[in-house]
Write a structure and sequence with these properties.
The complex is a heterodimer of chains A (about 550) and B (about 280).
Chain A (H helix, E strand, L loop, with lengths): L89 H4 L23 E6 L12 E6 L5 E6 L3 E7 L13 E8 L4 E3 L4 E3 L5 E4 L7 E6 L4 E14 L23 E17 L9 E4 L5 E5 L3 E6 L2 E10 L12 E6 L6 E6 L4 E5 L11 E3 L12 H5 L3 E4 L5 E5 L3 E6 L8 E4 L8 H6 L9 E3 L5 E5 L4 E6 L5 E5 L15 E3 L8 E3 L11 E4 L5 E6 L2 E6 L4
Parallel strand pairs in A: 28-29
Antiparallel strand pairs in A: 1-32, 2-3, 3-4, 4-5, 6-7, 8-9, 9-10, 10-11, 12-13, 13-14, 14-15, 16-17, 17-18, 18-19, 20-21, 21-22, 22-23, 24-25, 25-26, 26-27, 30-31, 31-32
Chain B lengths: L11 H15 L5 H21 L5 H24 L7 H14 L4 H17 L5 H31 L16 H4 L5 H20 L3 H4 L30 H10 L8 H22 L2
Helix pairs in contact in B: 1-2, 2-3, 2-6, 3-4, 3-8, 6-8
The chains are: A mainly beta (about 550), B mainly alpha (about 280).
Protein name (chain A): Serine/threonine-protein phosphatase 2A 55 kDa regulatory subunit B
Family (chain A): Belongs to the phosphatase 2A regulatory subunit B family.
Keywords (chain A): Repeat, WD repeat
């Protein structure tokens, strides 16, 4: 049941002092203290945020003493969040959220209140969005120090997190451009007279094994392995070459010298090391690196192939659901992923809302699944569009490997791998759209493929919605929150205000009605830092980074 | 939602559809059959639009085709439960279809149906205008969607062996007029939907050259093989006796190499063509 946020009796009073436990654990138990500087230096952006201005009415904020770790009650609560009184525990304060339509709690936190704050935004601010700039994938690497984005123009931009710097305390944790390169070019398939889009569908990082970083990026047809390496020294004093590169005349060389390494400005180079091509007839929708760090899978609409990272001229087909007669086709593969720990297990989801778990040890061609996950349909909510909205757009294993999460059009479901007949948790993302399905079908929005992600401790999940809203659900407390990625709420260190969609009846202040939602502003791609509470949200051509950080 | 390919021009039809879909959502004045018809129209329009794209999205096409099939199934079940000739466009189609199956289609039947249909529409003119709009839209657009899908199929047949072709029975000769027949809307829609994937087969197969039977290279030599009798007939595969299947395969070697039968037939044709080649080369 949605409950109102901005009740006049409780909003502006600063919270009384109350000592609370200090938690250093990432996830929703952690405590929001430190408001980050919002200086973005994206070369593409014309917008540079200013640091140093606190939002109005900001009292009792920890920012005055940035290094001090304060208790939850001392943090500033703005607007929509109710103030705490001394006695009651936060859990008793508000009713558990059933994940219903647009219901928003003040903070999706376990026991303590904390907020998400704006950190940075990358990308141009003008209204005219070039289609090539639209971000099509976002991914943190294993350590979280690097954040990669791919766009429709085939470019990959990698951001690196700044190291902590005592002289500039507010800039810790900022992501700045590390490398930009053109990963894929548009191609023309002459045999079929088709243009192959250069849009990057997915980026997946490889675990780091040496100083260089490796990632896989894919468009519809070709996967490429990129090596991103740093060069901060160069050799001087070659024997056969002059400093400017001209070859020296061998007869003039009278003495030999050993070249010495001299420091130079840091240069980040990206080079394609492997190109895995010509293995997919249909459009690649997923790639997933195996836990053995030697193989990976790529999935298109009807087939899944297994590759070895070293071998580019062959791949093994492990799943093929193409019927002998294409007329009989009723189901396509929509996403696939390897299990994070068991290198022989992977799952793939389908357009019919089912997930199949396969074990590669059972047979070479994994057409027969080991487990089949499907939730029986609820007859009361059946409509013409039931099948379309049941199509799974993303599947992600939890970090623990015990659960997996699937995203269909209206909900996110968490499945226990040991239980096939129904999910263990279901979260409604935007149930208020159920009554608008025909219009959404008409304008093709019903086919939008939203992704979902886990936080580092698997206690929370996040997914996107329309109107640049994105939703987060805390699995432990069952609280959820709707936030917006917009330039208006991107003031430096500003706390994000929870948003609410009004489903009917009287629209309250700060609520937005379903009919006012902008369906062109959709957040399809989000990523969560593997260990900390840092999230990256792609809103069309802008990348927003929000943080909640313990100092 | 940034589509590529065909730029859609806003037409009266589309304006109608936008208004209708919001009417659908607000659930006013639309009965269930009308809602169903609206959804069916939208599906067919989308399929038609996708066919015009250079590279339609397989995922979307499958979802839409499944929706169409589901609606078709529902309609068939409904009409099979209603022996009375209900005067609405859909019931009429389905009922007459069963008659069509057993006998050949004649022009008389065609005009008869048209008459009945016009009667049908007239009788409903007294009802709410939105329903009329829906019906008018549905008849015109279903047939236009279907005929355009079929046109594409014809085109596909010309350039390659049709994988979506269902063997036609000899006892049911088809004439070109049948293609545009409204009677068979249901079946044709279904076929149209299913044949969407036929195009994927053809355009997306990497083994295009390998699968291509030798016959097609010599198309211009022997055109009698490509008779108009074998335009995509809206027949359910289960209804065709197996004897005719073989015969069809003889004249239309399909891309499917799964049956050894077709391979043997291909070999026969190959030797024939070898012979022709020798003559041409003049050896």
């Amino acid at each position: 049941m949605p409950f109102s946020l901005s009740q006049p009796s409780r909003s502006r009073n600063p919270a009384p002092s109350k000592p609370g436990p200090h938690s250093s654990q990432p996830g929703f138990n952690s405590v929001s203290k430190y408001f980050m500087s919002a200086r973005g230096r994206c070369p593409q952006s014309q917008h540079v945020e200013e640091a140093g201005v606190f939002p109005e009415g900001h009292t009792g904020c920890s920012a005055r003493e940035p290094r001090q770790h304060l208790s939850p009650s001392q943090s500033r609560l703005t607007g929509a969040l109710p103030a705490q009184d001394s006695g009651s525990s936060p859990a008793a304060r508000w009713p558990p959220c059933s994940g219903g339509a647009g219901g928003v709690a003040g903070g999706a936190g376990g026991g303590n209140d904390f907020q998400w704050c704006f950190s940075q935004v990358k990308g141009a601010i003008d209204e005219d969005v070039a289609e090539a700039d639209i971000i099509s994938t976002v991914e943190f690497n294993y350590s979280g120090d690097l954040l990669a984005t791919g766009d429709k123009g085939g470019r990959v931009v990698i951001f690196q997190r700044e190291q902590e710097n005592k002289s500039r305390p507010h800039s810790r944790g900022e992501y700045n451009v590390y490398s930009t390169f053109q990963s894929h070019e548009p191609e023309f398939d002459y045999l079929k007279s088709l243009e192959i889009e250069e849009k990057i569908n997915k980026i997946r990082w490889l675990p780091q094994q040496n100083a260089a970083h490796f990632l896989l990026s894919t468009n519809d047809k070709t996967i490429k392995l990129w090596k991103i390496s740093e060069r901060d020294k160069r050799a001087e004093g070659y024997n056969l070459k002059d400093e400017d590169g001209r070859l020296r005349d061998p007869f003039r060389i009278t003495a030999l010298r050993v070249p010495i390494l001299k420091p130079m400005d840091l240069m980040v180079e990206a080079s394609p090391r492997r190109i895995f091509a010509n293995a997919h007839t249909y459009h690649i929708n997923s790639i997933s690196v195996n836990s053995d760090h030697e193989t990976y899978l790529s999935a298109d609409d009807l087939r899944i192939n297994l590759w070895h990272l070293e071998i580019t001229d062959r791949s093994f087909n492990i799943v093929d659901i193409k019927p002998a007669n294409m007329e009989e086709l009723t189901e396509v593969i929509t996403a696939a992923e390897f299990h994070p720990h068991h290198c022989n297990v992977f799952v793939y989801s389908s357009s019919k809302g089912t997930i199949r778990l396969c074990d590669m040890r059972s047979s070479a061609l994994c057409d027969r699944h080991s487990k089949f996950f499907e939730e029986p349909e609820d007859p009361s909510s059946r409509s013409f569009f039931s099948e379309i909205i049941s199509s799974i757009s993303d599947v992600k294993f939890s970090h623990s490997g015990r659960y997996m999460m699937t995203r269909d059009y209206l909900s996110v479901k968490v499945w226990d791998l040991n239980m096939e007949n129904r999910p263990v948790e279901t979260y409604q993302v935007h149930e208020y759209l159920r009554s608008k399905l025909c219009s959404l079908y008409e304008n093709d929005c019903i086919f939008d493929k939203f992704e979902c992600c886990w936080n580092g401790s698997d206690s929370a999940i996040m997914t996107g919605s329309y109107n640049n809203f994105f939703r987060m659900f805390d699995r432990n407390t069952r609280r959820d929150i709707t936030l917006e990625a917009s330039r208006e709420s991107s003031k430096p260190r500003a706390i994000l205000k929870p948003r609410k969609v009004c489903t009917g009846g009287k629209r309250k202040k700060d609520e937005i009605s379903v009919d006012s939602l902008d369906f062109n502003k959709k957040i399809l791609h989000t990523a969560w830092h593997p260990t900390e509470n840092i999230i990256a949200v792609a809103a069309t051509n802008n990348l927003y980074i929000f943080q909640d950080k313990i100092n | 939602m940034l589509g590529r390919g065909l730029k859609r021009k806003l037409s009266d039809y589309e304006e109608n559809m936008a208004g209708l879909s919001s009417a659908f959502d607000s659930s006013r004045n639309l009965t269930y059959p009308l809602k169903r018809q609206l959804v069916l129209n939208m599906c067919l329009t989308k399929l038609q639009t996708y066919k015009m794209l250079v590279e339609p999205d397989l995922h979307r096409s499958v979802l839409i085709a499944n929706t169409v099939r589901q609606i078709q199934e529902e309609m068939r079940q409904e009409t099979s439960q209603q022996p009375v000739n209900v005067c609405n466009g859909l019931g009429l189609h389905s009922q007459n279809y069963t008659g069509v199956d057993s006998a050949g289609i004649s022009a008389q039947l065609l005009s008869g149906v048209n008459q009945q249909e016009s009667n049908c529409c007239d009788s409903r003119s007294a009802e709410e205008p939105i329903e009329n709009g829906l019906l008018m839209v549905s008849d015109d657009d279903m047939s236009s969607a279907i005929s355009s899908i079929l046109k594409d199929l014809d085109f596909m047949e010309d350039i390659s062996p049709p994988t979506c072709l269902v063997p036609a029975g000899d006892d049911q000769p088809k004439s070109p007029e049948n293609v545009g027949l409204k009677l068979e809307d249901d079946r044709q829609e279904l076929k149209g939907a299913e044949c969407v994937f036929g195009s994927f087969e053809i355009s997306n197969s990497t083994s295009y050259l390998k699968d291509l039977a030798i016959d097609d290279i010599f198309e211009d030599i022997d055109t009698s093989m490509y008779d108009s009798d074998f335009c995509c007939p809206p027949q359910m595969p289960s209804r065709v006796p197996s004897a005719t299947t073989e015969e069809t395969l003889k004249t239309f070697p399909t891309c499917n190499s799964s049956s050894t039968n077709s391979i043997q037939i291909c070999r026969t044709d190959l030797s024939e063509l070898d012979h022709i080649m020798e003559i041409l080369v003049g050896s």
